[in-house]
Specification:
By secondary structure, this protein is mainly α. It contains 25 helices and no strands. The longest helix is centred in the middle third of the chain and has 14 residues, at about 180-195. The radius of gyration is 32 Å and the shape is elongated. It starts with a helix and ends in an 8-residue tail after the last helix.
């Protein structure tokens, strides 16, 4: 796609519309509208009304039949019509609307004119759009939704919404896989309102979509609409999702299905929100999760999330268990042990300071965050020894942060 300013100049120069605007995304059309208005007057041509009056100079002239260069009426090309639809003069834009039925490719600019600031242009454009078959709006759904943000932009998207809610379900399906995120969300909301998506399909959408808002929407709808026979399909899909929020939704839904005890498997999840939901479901089923965490952390720990979980729901008596895990051979366990100590407010500067020299960058960063409130107790010399080029970069950064927190380095203005 050409640069929008280049495209405006090319259209004004007569280049065919399909060569300039092939595969234009929704945001291109409003930008083109602005770019054409900004063209020099010489590129817009001279528009005259019948009788030879110059439209640009006679502001009181009646709405003209457009002619260019003083030659009066003649057939307009598609490119000329596109330029006239975006002309700075509202009377030119209004007159150009009569050219749209002859050029279907100008539909996006007709939609733009439906949100025009000038009421006569806007009303005429809306009348023309209302006469078109509603399915013709489907390819322009992204543009309609973009323009809906404008003060006068709801008209066209309301037409589309009515068509999708009253028309064939296949039209809604066509929008679900749109590459335009707003269009896909809009289609899914209509599909949900019409009940077109089965619970299992909604769960798969929640699990596999790259759109966080759509994932949440579909997960909530899948859980709300599932029947007894859908439990395994829906919950199995949600609990296997990569996104923590979706797994959390699946864990919480275990309570609704009476499968409280299955939440044990998620107590040590890598996501804090999933762990919190698992504890909630277990408590609702009458099980205290704290003894389970203590048991998981008492032996050979293989799941770091269990260490964080102990800090999240334990008490100060669990601090020594976490201190023992600060020296665990697995870096992930050490990171979560530090997080657990922070959660219990059990950080001790002298005991945690050696982790600034830990071989794992993740552990160094976790220890630095935990030690920032205690930075004033460090010796400036001890920190400065670590803020030298022969130390690993992560250690230098840790020393700088602690020196700055202690007031030994002034913040950069």
């Amino acid at each position: 796609m050409n640069d929008v300013r280049t495209a405006a100049s090319q259209l004004a120069g007569g280049l065919p519309l399909h060569e300039v605007l092939a595969d234009a995304p929704p945001e291109f059309w409003p930008a083109l509208d602005s770019a054409i208005r900004d063209l020099p007057p010489r590129d817009l041509g001279t528009y005259v009304a019948p009788g030879g009056r110059w439209l640009r100079r006679d502001r009181d002239a009646p709405l003209p039949s457009l002619g260019r260069g003083g030659r009066g009426r003649r057939e307009r090309s598609e490119s000329e019509a596109a330029v006239e639809l975006c002309h700075p003069d509202g009377r030119v834009r209004e007159a150009a609307l009569d050219l749209v039925p002859g050029f279907p490719a100008l539909l996006p600019l007709l939609i733009v004119r439906c949100a025009d600031w000038a009421a006569p242009v806007r009303e005429r454009a809306r009348a023309l759009l209302s006469e078109m078959p509603p399915p013709s709006l489907l390819p322009c759904a992204g543009l309609l939704l973009l323009l809906a943000r404008r003060e006068q932009g709801r008209f066209a998207v309301d037409l589309l919404d009515r068509e999708l809610r009253e028309g064939p379900a296949s039209q809604v399906e066509d929008l679900l896989d749109s590459e335009d995120r707003a269009t896909s969300r809009f289609g899914h909301r209509v599909a949900l309102d019409r009940g077109l998506l089965a619970p299992g399909r909604l769960a798969r959408l929640a699990s596999g979509s790259g759109d966080a808002s759509l994932r949440d929407l579909c997960a909530e709808a899948a859980i709300a609409s599932m029947r007894d026979e859908d439990h395994d399909d829906v919950l199995g899909t949600l609990l296997a999702a990569r996104a923590g929020r979706i797994r959390a939704a699946g864990v919480t839904a275990l309570r609704r299905t009476g499968r409280h005890d299955e939440a044990r498997a998620w107590l040590a999840d890598r996501s804090g929100v999933v762990r919190a939901c698992a504890r909630y479901v277990l408590r609702q089923g009458g099980t205290d999760p704290l003894p389970l965490y203590r048991a998981m952390c008492a032996g050979e720990v293989t799941v770091p999330g269990a260490v964080s979980g102990l800090g999240e729901c334990g008490d100060r008596s669990d601090a020594e268990t976490l201190w023992a895990l600060v020296s665990h051979p697995a870096p992930g366990v050490r990171v979560h042990a530090v997080s657990g100590l922070r959660a219990l407010d059990a950080v001790t500067r002298d005991r945690l300071a050696p982790l600034i020299d830990d071989p794992s960058p993740a552990v160094v960063r976790a220890a630095t965050r935990a030690l920032l409130p205690h930075a004033g107790g460090f010796s400036p010399e001890w920190l400065s020894e670590r803020n030298v080029p022969d130390r690993p970069r992560v250690v230098q950064v840790a020393a700088q942060r602690l020196l700055r927190a202690a007031g030994h380095i002034r913040p950069t203005p």
